[in-house]
Amino acid sequence: MHKFHGSILRAALMASVSLSVASIASAQTADAPVATNQADEADQAIVVTGIRASLASAAKMKRDSVLIVDSITAEDVGKLPDVSIADSLARLPGVTAQRLEGRDQRLSIRGLGPDFSTTLLNGREQVTVGDNRGVEYDQYPSEFFQNVNVYKSTDASLIAAGISGTVDLRMLRPLDKNDRIIAVSLRGQMNGMNKLNPDGERYGYRASATYVDQYADDTLGLAIGFAASQTPSQNERFNAWGYPTDASGNLIIGGAKPYVQSNLLKRYGAVGTLEWQPSDNFHSTFDVLYSHFEEEQRLRGIEFPLVWGANVGVSDVTVDNGFVTGATFSNVYGVQRNDYNKRTADTISLGWNNQFSLNDALRLNVDASWSRAKRTDFLLETYSGTGYLRSGVPDSVRVDRQSNGLFKIVPTIDYTNTGIISLTDPNGWGYNGTTAVVQAGFLNRPKFIDDMRSLRMNLNGDIEGSLFSNWEIGGNYSRRKKTSAFTSFFLCPTGGTDCTVAGGTPGSAPVPSEALLGSNVSLGYLGVPAMLTLNPLYLYDNVLDAVYDNRPQSLVRDNFVKEDVFTGYAKMTMDGELGGKPLKGAFGVQVIHSRQRSVGTISSFSNGVVTVVPASGKASYTDFLPSAQISVELEPGFFVKLGAAQAMVRPRLDQERVNQEFSFDPSKIGLGSDPMNSPFSSNGGNTNLRPYQSTNIDLSVERYFRNGGYVSLSGYFKNLTDFVDPNNSIAYDFSSLLPALPVDVRNEIIANGGAIGLLKAPANNGRGTIMGVEGTASLPFKLFSESLDGFGLFASGSYTHSEVKYGSNPTDTVTLPGLSKWVASGTAYFERNGFQARVSYRYRSSFLGEVAGLSAAPTFRTAKAEGILDAQIGYEFQSGPLTGLSILLQGKNLTDQPFVTYQNDDPRQVIDYQRYGRDYYLGLTYKF
Length: 928
Hints:
globular; 33-stranded antiparallel beta sheet; five-stranded mixed beta sheet; mainly beta
């Protein structure tokens, strides 16, 4: 099974063109110089600081680049304009962020989720602490970056570009500064909600320090930065199991799991850059970045099996338009949850770039890098209730839908009463694959290691007397290996064998007084007055037995995926005039040879027993990616930019795994020859997956004003092929497993044609299109009147339409993860004489968001539209003894916008509701 080759639709590469400015070659290896503009630079100069300086710098980057790019720039050393990198990026045109645990973490660019973009650090592809390729941006302290560029078009020298875009995080370069800089910053944080758990936190802080200096006659530069933060968050959360239909055909809630959550994220980081340029012929830069973070989550709530519970009665029903809005459920056995999660992650990134000028017209660049991320999770669940397997006191629960879509849940028993509550498996859900387990808790301990090493060389030279001004050839080799290891345990009362009922495990254990916390948690926001509040770590260490989870589906998760990628490229850069108009551009091509391999396990069938055996798989392939970009300045400050490119991005790493989980269902014996009715099935990954492919066409019209500011309008079209269908299944002949079955069972399966079952593995059988338009306006109001100097507006909006279909189901259009059809943001600001104020609002329409599902496995659900308002006000002393001191007050999520997901395109069917509250920050920065 592990040698399964998925059905792959390969479209011939279109002869397309796309290009970029010559400097983007070094955007991958050294700092990206931007092309100079032919317009009078003196006329374009804008001497401003703070917010206006940040916007002006980003506008210059956008104007001078032939690529279609948007940027954010630090207002000062160690000071990006928002609380986090993701917050800032979410204000750029066509870029949206998804909130997780109250923080902006994952980005979507032009309607495609985080799996379709790539993230670079100083031009180098980065690993991630996440489950797959998508970078979680809170692993990077924002204080470490001078600017961040989002390239929406690509060029041959932009290695590891994504289909949707490429995010390049840029650290400060010490030789770019003229003087010594020392800056320190301290900021306090308070959450608008009181802490929801007695062992949670409400207050936090962020602190940073930066040192920049130059030595040896300004030929040696050093930049060092440190950052530490402790960030709390609160979460009132409601989760519904789903909405089946009752006997009358009305939708009714199947079960609910409300809880309160208190998080504390601790992050410590350091960064250093050593830059040496002893002459015009040699320039060397060494970067290092290290980040360590720990996140602790304390979750407490009660899980209520309602209509899906065993022998649950329903009465006093109220219905509105086919939806049950209220009901009383009897014979309910609630499951109290006292859970604790901890994630520990370390990221390190090293890069060494050397640029040699071989003569006046020939340059060599050599760049080496290594990045590594290691993450360990500790996901602890503990359960309590009135007795094992519904043997205790039943509850009667009244449930009513509220105006915000949540259900008010009012129980009748006291869930804080230790006289009736014990540590147990209240509904008897525990099962180890063969027999019942008294599951009073569960522990997941996944570990991930992501390692990437790369080496790049390129040679470029000047061309005289031609429209073409520069040529470049280069190559890059990278090796990436991501290892995923999963371990899990059943937790049960002590006194038996293997946590099983047959082994004599007690059905329950009394709640020890040592585990009780001083005060009980309230779920009053949903109607539950209080619940028993326990220390889950005490229960794990002192009360519960841990037994290894050896279910077949648990044993076939470990794997590693390794990718060796060889990239060669060549391009020609243009810089001249066409018809008297300034023209820039380039033509190029990448040739990418990939070798991918996965080692893991598959479950098989032997002597009537499911077994686990090692497995491995590998594949190799070559892709050709032509590209071209062109920029014409039709009149001073008015640009038209056109690009076309063949782009690709690799599938999710978990989809490339070799693992396959075999399943045998005796209840399907004799049901017929339809593969869906076969007792045999298997589910897993596909080592032979190829990258997503896309033919991209981009057009941008940009008008820059003489005294600052600009407006732009961009359109884009992406023709997607080899799109990965994660739910692909094929008919597979499991006849080789028949000899392991008893003769009578074997003969019955053969007689009914049941040996042909379904093998589920992702395949490149999808295709489709994405098209959209985005507009941006950066308008300092000084353009309209000198009296408005200091006021300004930055606003953007985009619309995206997609139509993607899988080959296995060509009639239905797929909803792409992360795609909001409408995205808009606006920032109004005032800045003058050291005083600054800003109000920002961003909106995105509904989208398919990735959230944590059962056992923390990633799953997708539709998220409701949301609008988020942030604001800040500050003052910087510009004279007197306090010169260099600045004060800043910020408010985030002032609209108190919840994150809400629902199912079946029906907003009434709320699955997840998370309210994080508002966050307030007060900070001091001193620069000297």
